[in-house]
Amino acid sequence: MYLVSACLAGINCRYNGGNSKNKFISQLVEQGKAIPVCPELLGGLKIPRVCCEIITDETGNKKVLSKDGKEFTKEFVDGAKKTLKIAQIVKTEIAILKSRSPSCGYGFIYNGNFNGELIKGNGFTADLLIKNGIAVYTEKDVLKLKFFRE
Q: How many CB atoms lie within 10 A of CB 57?
């Protein structure tokens, strides 16, 4: 069983009320091979919500701030923990998450300045899943990887 970002399955849960539907990923859900989750909703955030990005403060701690300057680190951490619980319950070994997201981003995330620039890093959920032995990929990886096409 795969764990996937709900927005990739076509669920309107992104910060702007939309989705990032990926045909392949939505088919996995329809076929009962994947469970869609939205860590940000699990953490208590609403739809729509202000765009958020991760910043690293002067002491090296990561925080999530909205474009209007409010901190949402607790909600992102809570959502990551709840997502991990779901992953453990369904015994998933692979998660396919939304690239660049402060929750789900893997490999690259936005730099925290809301200017569209990317930096190396992972979102809170991606990081927690990886630390707990779950392989993380993004929607950009799925068609490149042979085992997803089987």
A: 9
